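Example (one chain per record):
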Amino acid sequence: MDSAIWNIGRGIKVRPRFVLPAALSVAAILLLVSCNRGDLPGKKQSASGQVQASPVAPVASSKVAEEQPEAALSPLTVEQRLEDFDYMWKIIEENYPFLEVNKRLNGEDWLANKEEYRNKIAAVKNDHEFLREMTFVLSRLNNGHTNFLSKEEYPWFLNAYVQAGFGYEPWINVFQQPNVLARYNQKPLAEQQSSNGIVNDMNSGEAGSQTGKTSGNVKKVIIEPEPIAYLGMRSFAGSLMEMDSSEIRDFLIEVKDYKTLILDIRGNGGGNSNYWRAHIAPLLINKPIEYNTYLLYTRGNYAETFMQARQITRGQQPITNIKDEQLPNLPSEALKMFKTYSKNTDVVIPQESVGFKGEIYLLVDSSVYSSAEGLAAFAKGTGFATVVGGRTGGDGLGMDPLVVALPNSGYVFRFSFEMGLNSDGSCNEEVKTVPDVEVDPDTSKPLLDQPAVQKVLELAKSH
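Predicted structure:
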């Protein structure tokens, strides 16, 4: 129920929509995965003694591993730690797309530091120090999708992959390797499902949506006297889509005749691009919108199984053909470091459109990343909305990061493996999205005192 209108100052009134927090819902259907017997992550010894990455993604074992504390694991030897380091290094060297971008943006020549990093790994005293140093090494890539997973993050990611269903088997298989289960103190997925752990999580989410509760993720405000509609979303998490969609739709129907709509995704680190592709943009457009983007793939082979599972190997072209696309801002390393590319014509079609005909403003900042960055790039590239605020965080084009299990320790890391290009050929991770109107995106002050909101109010008066 709407609250009473109160004065905020400067003659502007705000009518907020209060929301009640509830347990997060699970949006997707649970996929019951049967684990196939297989080996640990493949590795082969080169003539130099370094471990080379296997081109085949590891598969899960059907063996049931009992839960055990990490202290029960045998400590890694120096040789095992170095072997894990070499395995990780080879994976990144052959498959990671942003090595040159890291040089340009951060002055970091990551590959040149191998011996320094390897010596630090050789000097660690225990497994805890090993993980800390390995985490530091990956952090020098300066990419938000590239990192080791903590014990707290393991079940979250596993549930996300299971809920996503078909096409995510390679991701799930990595998480189900025996050494990974032991390292993260987890039971095999089949055993978790038999105890209804994941199903119970789903039921709790469904109960929340059925009782009409909201996630607390969506903020709705009417700024008067114009009036101007404000819709803020702190996350695009897939688990929130089902619960948030009706709340968003009802609000957009209510404000469909307004002249101005503010979409605020400042601080939104992403989640699932279907959040905005299915539940925001289609409701606000009156005709299809097309937007071309490009994805570049390195010469490494580790990604092959993941790409086949997601059916994205079809339609790829040799990288030499990208010259015919006439992209003015193509990164200089594109023809050297990459093997293939795909051109993606992103088409967003009106669906249950509310018939909004006013001006849309999208508020962004440096925390806008991943799928939230995808919305920013789409808005800027198509004119769907006027982008206001600060430069975004980038890496919003492409699919989920790949996951890798280290062969000895069982630690899991993930990494970006596609270079997403904007419609002009510029690397999205490098240039990110530059707002149409740059202004301080600070959110620490009350809503109407925030510079980005004040700028939109100023722009709205001129229309």
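Caption: Residues 1-71, 199-211 have pLDDT under 50 and may be disordered.
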